[in-house]
Each structure stands twice: as structure tokens, then as C-alpha cells.
Write a structure and sequence with these properties.
This protein is α+β, with helices and mostly antiparallel strands and 564 residues long. 42% of the residues lie in helices and 10% in strands. The protein has 22 helices and eight strands. The protein has helices at 71-77, 128-140, 144-158, 170-184, 192-210, 218-224, 226-229, 237-242, 245-258, 264-282, 286-295, 297-300, 305-308, 314-320, 328-346, 379-382, 392-403, 423-434, 455-463, 483-498, 521-529, 549-560, and strands at 16-18, 28-33, 38-44, 51-57, 78-85, 91-97, 105-112, 118-125. It has a five-stranded antiparallel sheet with strand order 1-8-7-4-5. Strand 2 and strand 3 (38-44) form a beta hairpin. Helix 3 (144-158) crosses helix 4, helix 9 (245-258) crosses helix 10 (264-282) and helix 18 packs parallel to helix 20. The longest helix has 19 residues, at 192-210. The chain starts with 15 loop residues before the first strand and ends with a helix.
């Protein structure tokens, strides 16, 4: 059993330094086994054959007390002395038993070498009787309350690491004790070497639970107890390493906030889950997501056999990118749903996600299986999202696009139809809807970096001349898209990928047409005359207002179901 240096470390590495600077490089350790009251002190001298002297001072005696003491006084101040020469490698080791009459206390060990330098360290000696009593109390504990009391009263005699233990609440210490009892099982701990790892593991678990209150960072706990959690052995670890610092913080904070862990394996699972979720959310497309899902297929319970048989695999993974799933179960369900849809889709000649793409086709339509029929006879589909009853005018569009895998809710059953949609979110939906995703596309917008989930979508749209960004060379990431900008992007998409929607364009204008920005006037009028955008009851378009998720779904749905 390794004892504590200055009450903190189990392993001593020369703490208090006295003498020449060279002594700072000399290290010695103190190993104490209370079973036999045996102390072993080892280290390195300044040279081979050097004379090394050991002095063990009485409790409460400090090295400076020796300076003015007489020879007779030294006999009471120094409990044990020994001397030997370092070996050919300049190493030395002392071993001696501490008499049973000595009590548990803090003792100073002084090592003197031939160059007249001295090194002092302190260690806590635990008498065998007190150690045995504490260990017996641990083994005789019948329930978590008794175990918690045994650990609390015996921690100083058993060498329990108290760095995080002392911060725990009473209930957390009870949970810790329950974990130690589970580790002990029906038998007693045969040795302190069996007991201490059980305490350490369960202290680590409860320290993570305790981190919820913000008294310390959970990452510090993870680092301190690395040998307990062994995150670097997980399949998800290499993907955690690829996340940016902000995303890594979100992973560890999410693990902490979840709380309520009873063992280290639950924490490892949570670490894996949040690493996967944030990796999917921040991924830029197929190249990033497929290796992640495949490496963690056992955890996700994903069968890749049907996926591997698909011709257009990227249709699956690119629709997952940028989505923040509630949990990995929801992610797996979405993956399976998209695979099944693509499987059916490839058996048909046409439809969203077909392997041939749309190219310059003048017909764009959602496959029949994705279009929601009369809502009165489709009550099960109405329950796809719980919050779209307030937007009856958009319900059919939302459900159809969701079923086709083109649009997602913010959670599994909540769409949030009245939330505004950002420019990059809208572009992703449009690119997915038109089936024009290009994994090789690149762009140079100042605010679109290649490590973001939306990079490939924006790059695809830019390469197809659908988006051109805003002033200053930026795309406008994070900004809610206005109705007139949405109209402009849709009009460019129509021009490039849908052909002429209506050759006989009527000269229809909104009542507030004068408020439309000059760059968007033609686009707004064109889409209005073709029925893709509508005004309010006063025939007002409100061009500068932000677009809601429901409005975006409606215009995309109309676009996909218009024929040229």
C-alpha cells in the first residue's frame, strides 16, 4: 500500500527540498505495508557508491529542530537511523519495521547523501491495529449505511484518496458505498488491493454525478480517473478527438448534466452517445458520418447489410448531417427509416433520392409514397409531429417532406413550425429536396468553414449558382432567412433544375411589391405568378420578414410538386 505524501499523494516523490540544487533531481519513494508495519524507502543518490543516511523523526519533529539539539536530545527526536552505500547504478533502498508501540501519525523521513544535501518527505504511518479495525469494519458492513460509515471513519487508515471523496454529499457517499458492496459481493475483500480500486471506481462515478452542481469541471474528474473510465479505449474516442474544442466541451458537459450514474459503464455509454450525437450534428457529410456509424455499429445496434446493398448510400448519411438527435435510439431509427425509404425508392424509376438524380429535368415531384393523403383518413401520420395542428395550412407539406427524409423535426415528435429557419438550414433542405448534394463541392464564404455540418450543403448550392452569399464575401451563417431571400434562392433553383414552371407568366404583383428589394423583385414576382409564394389576407408578401419552418416546408413542397 502506497502512503500519502503530505496527506495527498499515495506515492511519495521527495516533497520538501533542502540543500543543493542537484538534490532536486534525486527522487525517493516510501512504500508502507501496514500488514507487517514494513517501510521500504528507495531512491537515487548523486553517484554510485555514495554514502546514504536515513533518519526517521518522531511525530511533530521537524528537520530544523535537530539543529540546536544535543546528542542526548537527538535520541528522542530521531526514532530510527540507518546507513548504506548506493549500488553501481547509484540506487539505494532501506527497509525496516516500525515498532508496534508507535501510533498512527505523520512522520518525517530525512535522506542525507555524501554531498551533504538532504531531502525530506512526510508520510502517514498507520498502525496495524487501526488499519485492521478499519478493514474489518469494511468487510463486516451489511448495508450501504454501514459501509458508508466504515469508509468515512476508516479512510485515513485505509489510504482512501479523498481528493473528490470529501466533496460528495451524504447521499452520494451512500451510493458510493452501495457500489463498493456490489464489488465485494458475497465474499469479503481479501486484501486492501481489492478494496481500494472499488472505492476509487465508485468515487469517480459519484464525482461525475456531483459535478452537476458546478463545483468543479467534469473534465478534471475524467482526467483524474482516466484509468477508471478508459475513454481512450472506446470506439467513439477517435471521433471525440476530431471534434473541435467547443463540441468536446458540449460532450463532457452533457455527460455531467445527465447525472444519476450508478457505475462507470453507464458513464462510458453516455460519453459514447454524446460523442456520436455531436459528431453527427457537426459533420459535413457522408465522408464524416459513415465511419462514425460503422465504428460504433454495435453500440448503435445498426445492421449495415441493407445499407451496403444500396447504390446511393450518401443519400442516407447526408440527411443525418447537421441534425441534433435527442438520443442514439432516435438516430438509429432515423437511419433505418432512411435506408428503408431509399431501398424502396431504388426499386422505382422515379422519386426523391433516385440514383440518377434530377439534373436538368423539368419535372420535380415527391414520390407517391411520401405524399400524405387526406388527413382525415390518415390519423396515424397526423401524429408524426405533435405541434403542427396550429399550422393546418402547412401540415400536409411538413408531413410529406418529413416522410421523404427531406426535413426533420427539432425532436422526434416536435417540429416547431413557427420557429424561424436560418439560411444554412434552408439551403440544406433545398439541396436534399433537389437531390443535388455534391460531396466534392467547395466554397470560399468567409463564415463557412469546412469543419461545419452545413459546409457541403452551402458549397453545393454555391457551385450550382443557387446561392451567392451577402455583402463582404460571407454567406450569412446563423441569420434567419428573409422571405425575399428565400424566394430568390428558390427562383435560382427553378431556373437551374426545374425548367420553366409556367411559360405564360402572369404579371401578378403583391400589394407591397414596392417593398421588395431590387435584387429579389423578379424572383418574387415569378414565384408569385406560379403559385409558389403567397401573400397574407391583404395580398402582402412582407419581404423583409423572417421565414418560419412551416413556410419553408410549404414552398419546398410546392416546388417539388409543380410540373413544367
Amino acid at each position: 500500500m502506497k502512503l500519502k505524501c503530505l496527506g495527498t499523494s499515495i506515492f511519495l516523490s521527495a516533497a520538501l527540498l533542502i540543500g543543493s540544487p542537484a538534490a532536486a533531481e534525486e527522487i525517493y519513494s516510501i512504500d508502507y505495508n501496514p500488514e507487517g508495519s514494513l517501510v521500504t524507502i528507495s531512491g537515487a543518490a548523486d553517484k554510485a557508491g555514495a554514502a546514504v543516511t536515513l533518519e526517521m523523526l518522531a511525530p511533530g519533529v521537524m528537520p530544523e529542530d535537530l539543529k540546536e539539539a544535543s546528542v542526548d536530545e537527538l535520541q528522542n527526536l530521531i526514532l530510527h537511523t540507518d546507513e548504506k552505500n548506493a549500488d553501481e547504478n547509484a540506487l539505494f533502498a532501506f527497509e525496516f519495521k516500525i515498532p508496534e508501540k508507535y501510533k498512527t501519525d505523520t512522520y518525517v523521513i530525512r535522506i542525507n547523501t555524501s554531498d551533504d544535501s538532504a531531502k525530506d518527505s512526510t508520510f502517514v504511518y498507520i498502525s496495524y491495529a487501526e488499519y485492521r479495525n478499519a478493514f474489518d469494519a469494511v468487510n463486516s458492513a451489511k448495508n450501504k449505511e454501514e459501509m458508508a460509515q466504515a469508509i468515512e471513519s476508516g479512510k485515513d487508515y485505509l489510504g482512501v484518496d479523498v481528493k473528490y471523496y470529501n466533496d460528495l454529499s451524504y447521499n452520494e457517499k451512500l451510493n458510493l458505498a452501495a457500489g463498493v458492496i456490489a464489488a465485494r459481493g458475497d465474499n469479503e475483500f481479501s486484501d486492501i488491493k481489492d478494496f481500494l480500486p472499488a472505492v476509487k471506481t465508485n468515487t469517480a462515478v459519484q464525482a461525475v454525478n456531483h459535478s452537476i452542481d458546478g463545483s468543479y469541471k467534469v473534465t478534471d474528474v475524467f482526467n483524474y480517473y482516466n484509468e477508471v473510465f478508459m475513454f481512450d479505449k472506446l470506439d467513439a474516442y477517435e471521433f471525440y478527438e476530431q471534434l473541435d474544442k467547443d463540441s468536446q466541451t458540449l460532450v463532457t458537459d452533457s455527460v455531467s448534466k445527465k447525472g444519476g450514474y450508478s457505475d462507470a459503464e453507464q458513464i462510458r455509454d453516455a460519453y459514447t452517445e454524446y460523442t456520436i450525437l455531436y459528431s453527427v450534428y457537426t459533420a459535413s457529410g457522408y465522408d464524416n458520418i459513415y465511419p462514425l456509424l460503422y465504428a460504433n455499429r454495435a453500440y448503435l445496434n445498426i445492421d449495415f447489410s441493407e445499407y451496403d446493398s444500396l447504390k446511393n448510400k450518401s443519400n442516407i448519411t447526408r440527411q443525418l448531417a447537421g441534425v441534433m438527435f435527442k438520443d442514439c435510439k432516435e438516430l438509429t431509427e432515423k437511419f433505418d427509416e432512411l435506408v428503408e425509404y431509399e431501398k424502396q425508392n431504388e426499386s422505382n424509376v422515379s422519386g426523391v433520392g433516385s440514383s440518377g438524380g434530377r439534373g436538368g429535368s423539368s419535372v420535380i415531384s415527391i414520390p407517391p409514397s411520401a405524399v400524405v393523403p387526406d388527413t382525415e383518413t390518415n390519423t396515424n401520420e397526423d401524429k408524426f409531429f405533435k405541434d403542427i395542428e396550429t399550422v393546418e395550412w402547412a401540415k400536409e407539406s411538413i408531413l410529406a417532406l418529413a416522410k421523404a427524409g427531406i426535413i426533420d423535426g427539432k425532436t422526434k415528435d416536435m417540429f416547431f413550425p413557427n420557429d424561424f429557419i436560418t439560411r444554412e438550414e434552408f439551403v440544406k433542405i433545398l439541396v436534399n429536396a433537389l437531390d443535388i448534394y455534391d460531396s466534392d463541392a467547395e466554397c470560399e464564404f468567409a463564415d463557412v468553414s469546412a469543419d461545419k455540418w452545413f459546409y457541403k450543403y452551402v458549397a453545393t448550392a454555391a457551385s450550382k449558382n443557387i446561392v451567392k452569399g451577402i455583402n463582404g464575401g460571407a454567406f450569412g451563417v446563423g441569420a434567419d432567412i428573409t422571405r425575399q431571400d428565400m424566394a430568390l434562392i428558390i427562383a435560382r433553383a427553378v431556373e437551374n433544375y426545374a425548367g420553366n414552371l409556367n411559360a405564360d407568366v402572369k404579371n401578378e404583383k403583391f400589394a407591397d411589391g414596392a417593398d421588395v428589394a431590387e435584387y429579389a423583385k423578379n424572383a418574387v414576382e415569378y414565384l408569385h405568378s406560379n403559385g409558389l409564394v403567397q401573400g397574407n389576407e391583404n395580398n402582402e408578401f412582407k419581404p423583409a420578414e423572417k421565414t418560419t419552418r412551416a413556410e419553408a416546408a410549404v414552398i419546398i413542397y410546392k416546388l417539388l410538386n409543380r410540373k413544367g
